[in-house]
C-alpha cells in the first residue's frame, strides 16, 4: 500500500516536472568536450600603438573577429543547453512511462 502511494506520488512529481512541448532536434555547433565545458578562449585584440589608419583598420577587423567568435561560442552554448534539456525531458518521459505502467499493473488495469 505504501509503495503504491509512493509510486503514485512519484508519477505526479515526474509529470509536473515534464514541460509540455514539441520535441525538436538541435542543429548547429557545440562546445561540449570530453574534459568538461570549455571557457571562451578568444584572444582579445590589443589597441594599436600608432595612430595610422592601417593600424586602426586592422584593429577594427580583429575586434570584429573577436566578437564573431564570441557570438559563435554563445550560439553553440545555447545549442548545448537545448540538447541537455531535450535529454532531460526524454528521461522524464521514460520514468513517467515506467511509473504509469507500474501503476496500471498494481491497480489491475
Shape descriptor reads rod-shaped
Number of separate strands: 0
Number of helices: 2
Number of domains: 1
- Summarize the helix and strand pattern as letters: HH
Q: What structural category do the secondary elements indicate? A: mainly alpha
Summarize the structure.
The chain is mainly α. The chain has helices at residues 2-17, 53-107. It has one domain (2-8, 28-107).
Please write out the topology.
Layout: H1 2-17, H2 53-107
Question: Could you characterize what this model shows?
Answer:
The chain is mainly α. The protein has one domain. 65% of the residues lie in helices and 0% in strands. The protein contains two helices and no strands. Helix 1 packs antiparallel against helix 2. The longest helix has 55 residues. The radius of gyration is 25 Å and the shape is rod-shaped. It starts with a helix and ends with a helix.
Amino acid at each position: 500500500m505504501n509503495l503504491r502511494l509512493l509510486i503514485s506520488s512519484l508519477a505526479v512529481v515526474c509529470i509536473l516536472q515534464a514541460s509540455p512541448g514539441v520535441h525538436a532536434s538541435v542543429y548547429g555547433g557545440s562546445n561540449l568536450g570530453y574534459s568538461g565545458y570549455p571557457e571562451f578562449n578568444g584572444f582579445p585584440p590589443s589597441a594599436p600603438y600608432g595612430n595610422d589608419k592601417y593600424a586602426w583598420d586592422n584593429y577594427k577587423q580583429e575586434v570584429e573577429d573577436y566578437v564573431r567568435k564570441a557570438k559563435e561560442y554563445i550560439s553553440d552554448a545555447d545549442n548545448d543547453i537545448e540538447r541537455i534539456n531535450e535529454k532531460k525531458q526524454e528521461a522524464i518521459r521514460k520514468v513517467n512511462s515506467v511509473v504509469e505502467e507500474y501503476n496500471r499493473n498494481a491497480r489491475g488495469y
